[in-house]
Amino acid sequence: MENGNSNNNHTINGNYETAGKVITCKAAVAYGPGQPLVVEEILVDPPKAMEVRLRILFTSICHTDLSAWQGENEAQRVFPRILGHEASGLIESVGEGVTDLKPGDHVVPIFNGECGKCAYCKSDKTNLCERFRVNPFKSVMTNDGKTRFSTKEGGKPIYHFLNTSTFSEYTVLDSGCVVKIDSQAPLKKMTLLSCGVSTGLGAVWNTADVQAGATIAVFGLGAVGLAVVEGARARGATKIIGVDINPEKRTKGEAIGITDFINPNDVDKPVHLVIREMTGGGVHYSFECAGNLDVLREAFLSTHDGWGMTVVLGIHPSPRLLPLHPMELFDGRRIVGSVFGDFKGKTQLPAFAKQCMSGEVKLDEFITHELPFNKINEAFQLLIDGKSLRCLLHL
């Protein structure tokens, strides 16, 4: 690495010779939909006003990275691009005007930022932000509409992804998309707070506000779905039903906290009828984590009429609309979406990190594989094959 910090023991003294300079480092660049990522040297510019440059130490792969890499949505096909949005690391340098972060701070990036000043950030009814809300189509920095990445040969622009772009040894983010956490927190595990665990668990704690004694059904037992399970377990739910067509998910689900497992391929009736029979009319809450509209309808119908709530967490790339008739809502069932678990990232994530440190939330089960960064394509294949929840990449 040229002009970079090659310190591998993850200790930082806060005095960077690289501040204000272009850094040459390695990144995994996506050049086209479905093409293997190319780990190569790139150039990373210094942060501009209200931006920060991070040294990424750990990153992992989420299904959102996978769908973007595969080009599932034509409007997202912006290449070359640096994907990735789950990570942890250290502040290398800060741009003009940044006062809440400094070099050496332990941080996690967040794709759904918080400026703290707009009407949305000041409202207690949303965790969206006028400037830094999640936007999968955004590929440049907010400041000037340009990128901070470029190719080493020729200096051609490389585009950003989800306000973060963590598949790089160094990355530049808006300061509103960076959260400072306790320096004693294990950065390796804190990577999970950037997306999957916060999204799933927050949907239980914040969006649905599940209470002790409740019954829930989780459709799709990937990392987000299992984070829902963990959140429900921590809240004292009495019945946690996991639904997945992958039979191997049963073991992982039971390790985290499901009480029952349903494989739709093994039952002779719609899943919602099975769940209604198991629960005396339906669960209090269902969580759709599969990104499939047919699954969403089953999740909706699996809740109890009169008071059931369905929380949508899956990403739906299809142009199809909701498979519901408006009159079905008159039975008292509700449906709501949840972004980043309704956490306000910069405001609430530091406290959540401490809850994880104290053992109130268990994170170990979510990291199923670990690989060096240069094996990122193998990590993608593990996710495609359904073998990993989160494969942690060490940079």
TrEMBL record:
Domain of life: Eukaryota
GO MF, one example: metal ion binding
Cofactors demanded by this protein: Zn(2+)
Keywords annotated in UniProt: Metal-binding, NAD, Oxidoreductase, Zinc
Sequence ranges assigned to domain Alcohol dehydrogenase-like C-terminal in this UniProt record: 223-344
Record-linked Gene3D superfamilies: Medium-chain alcohol dehydrogenases, catalytic domain, NAD(P)-binding Rossmann-like Domain
InterPro entries, A to Z: ADH-like_C (IPR013149), ADH-like_N (IPR013154), ADH_Zn_CS (IPR002328), GroES-like_sf (IPR011032), NAD(P)-bd_dom_sf (IPR036291)
Residues annotated as domain Alcohol dehydrogenase-like N-terminal: 50-182
The protein's assembly and partners: Homodimer.
Similarity comment: Belongs to the zinc-containing alcohol dehydrogenase family. Class-III subfamily.
The protein's name: Alcohol dehydrogenase
Naturally occurring in which organism (per UniProt): Cinchona calisaya
